[in-house]
Amino acid sequence: MSDITIRNLRDDLSFGALVTGLDWSNIEDETTRQSLRDTFAERGLIVFKDMEPSARMQVAVSKVFGPLKDHPTKTTPRDKETGEEAQGVIDMHYRPDPENPEAGEGLVEYKGEVLARYSPWHFDHCYNDELNYAGVLRAPINAPTGGRTGFMDGVELYRQFPQALRDKLEGKNVIYTLDTRLSKMKYGVNFKPLTENSGNIALLKEVAIFPRAMHPAVWERETGEKVLHFGPWMAVALAHHEDAEGDALLNEVAHEMNRLGEGTTAYWHDWLPTDMVIWDNHRMLHAVEGCSARYERQTLRTTIKGDYGLGYFEDGKKIGEVYREVA
């Protein structure tokens, strides 16, 4: 059995770890698994290098940290290659139109360039009453340039955020909806939406039945660390402040996050097909810088169960009740 090597992802980051040497010879060893879980709890993000680039390995890595969870929406594309044991593996695949790549789906203009697969800062399942504990991502198909995934740790973000803004967020909930259209984003918008996704018609049917979800802008871990956990994408209002003042606050916070995300506060991962990344969805925010609309890009995400217990639907319903009512 070979040993794994664990070190800090970067010396100037307070979060993130880099793991090498994980393979089929040691992934079932409980000492190795516990070491990975302990590292993850402390650092919030692990980049695995030189991994077997397979769905089977992605599922095995995911199950080190917990059971898999299906995605809460029906319209999100699932990966059809991984089989039933990989329930909930979602397939985010952009295929350009070779005749007219700048007429593709979900395109934005950012800093003068037309980009595909651009995603602003967010946390997964913000529109749901329950979050997932973590996500595991790999990228089998990458653009030759661009397409990096960014990660910001909410613990470090809280430390670095201007105190005046931080104080205004303490004790506040943010309202989120399932509407993922970038053209409807309200806060911190620094791009121009160009085209919508064809799946939006089906998505909007789900948007119509989903209650609004509430999540705290700041929460405290069992370790006593405070986490700034606001995702500008899919946020629609500040709870009990659905007015110009509330919107102005969230917009200012979002633009400050954009500023910090372009500096050393964030880690931006440049993908290889043999990389896998897991992040703690309760404390980390992530984003995708996008890539040229000329290039194909595919990422596959595994979702891991485990809620932090602080979110809720506005009307008190659970997700199962929502879907049963329209079945």
UniProtKB/TrEMBL annotation:
Entry's EC annotation: 1.14.11.17
Question: Which residues, by range, are in coiled-coil regions?
Answer: none
State the Gene Ontology terms under molecular function.
metal ion binding; taurine dioxygenase activity
Cite the entry's keywords alphabetically.
Answer: Dioxygenase, Iron, Metal-binding, Oxidoreductase
Domain TauD/TfdA-like, first and last residues per copy? 12-302
Q: Which Pfam families match?
A: TauD (PF02668)
The membrane-spanning stretches of this chain are none
| Keyword Metal-binding on entry | yes
The family assignment reads: Belongs to the TfdA dioxygenase family.
Name it.
Answer: Taurine dioxygenase
Species assigned in the record: Novosphingobium chloroacetimidivorans
